What does this fold into?
Amino acid sequence: MPIQRMVLPLLVVLVLGLAPLSYGQFAPHQPSHRILGYYNPATGAFEPLRPAEDVDAAVTATTGTLVFKLTITVKSTIPKNGVVGCSGEASVGDTSGRSYSEHGTGVGKLVSGTTYTCTVTLPYSWLLSAPASDKISLDYTANLNYGFQIAASNGADTAVEPLSARESDQGIPSISVPASGATTTEDISATL
It folds into this structure.
């Protein structure tokens, strides 16, 4: 009888001790990857995040150069330390939802009398999915800038504050995206 008393508790300990191990092998299968998402309070449902389409892999870059050549007639007084300048901007919104913009500046050169020329060159490389149907919006600025010098009250330090004496901003009609690798020049006349 003493052996039976010892076997029964040993059997109970053995069964109870090994039971958790046997239940672990029947646990529900966990997927190897998780689904990312968010709770949508409007619908009360879990909304999985959809992976972004890899537009870059299927699209070849459209490259080129846009050149703004401004002829600026200055009728305003050019202040001391004044500089005639210009800037140009090009932007395109692609059908894929991407948008691109380029911006550049130039410094005017006196040609004769009160006539200056100013050039802005904008090289670009855009991943456009539909370059044949996309349009480029163009804007330019002709400006007359100068530096206003400020001296400290002790006379030890000075600073120059850039100011705009005169500025003219205008848009140019949109153009189609040029063939890749092309240089497109816009000739512009402006008056300050």
